[in-house]
Amino acid sequence: MSKSIVEKVQTVLGVKADGVWGPKSQETLNAEIEKTKDSNPKLAKIQALIGAEEDGRWGQKSQKALNAALKGTSAPGGQGGNGPFQAKASSFADPKDVEDFKKCKATGKTDGQCFAVGDNGVGAWGANTAQTVAPMVAVHKDDAVARWGSFNAAAHRQVRVTVGAKSVLAVVADKLGKANRIDLNPAAARRLSLTPPFLVPCEWEWVV
Predict the structure, then answer these.
(1) C-alpha dihedral sign at 161, 195, 178, 175
(2) The whole model's pTM is what?
């Protein structure tokens, strides 16, 4: 019996090739993405398997192709479903947010203390969230665990956020601490015509 695409991807990553995409598989992929500077041969092999451009750099197109290959293969136990979910959309990593974080750090306080008043503009997996080009979001750990089994397993997943008549597709790049919220970076906010700071009703869902 031939191996599934998921099993082949797991083999490239060096994890158990059981055909079920769980937290361990996603965390191993995350590690490869995070250590990539120019090009990563392992990522190129995975891109070849999933039909993405074989450049060894992981972007939204590669993640979308992987998501398509992963349909129905996520680890059991996720109870959250794909949504849509009703929540409040708030802003993060906007210029004032970053400036408030820097001012806080200048007083000698810890990162944890300063995250209560601002943001450093660096996502949980090292992405530059403080920009207006690539839409990104921060999700609550419970939402990630409910759907994917762990917070790390939600890394780089795509979500759709809708505010009023406008929607934006964005990738999960960070974690927030307030339940029933989803944070939007400047790029995502711009696509929805929102000016930080804001706290508005929204609907969001996992795009798989």
Answers:
(1) positive
(2) 0.65
